[in-house]
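Might you be able to check the backbone structure tokens below? Thank you kindly.
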Amino acid sequence: MPKKNDNNLLAKKHLNNKNIKAKIRQQLQILRDNNILKFLGDGNYEIYNQY
């Protein structure tokens, strides 16, 4: 998961988006479900080898 400072940067850039954390979480889940990322636990992910 992004660091708090990363969320602040995104919040400043996208003023109308009040659900930044939820959107990031959703996108990570989509990447996981499509076997692009592997969930390691504790908010950590690993990119699957694409070769």
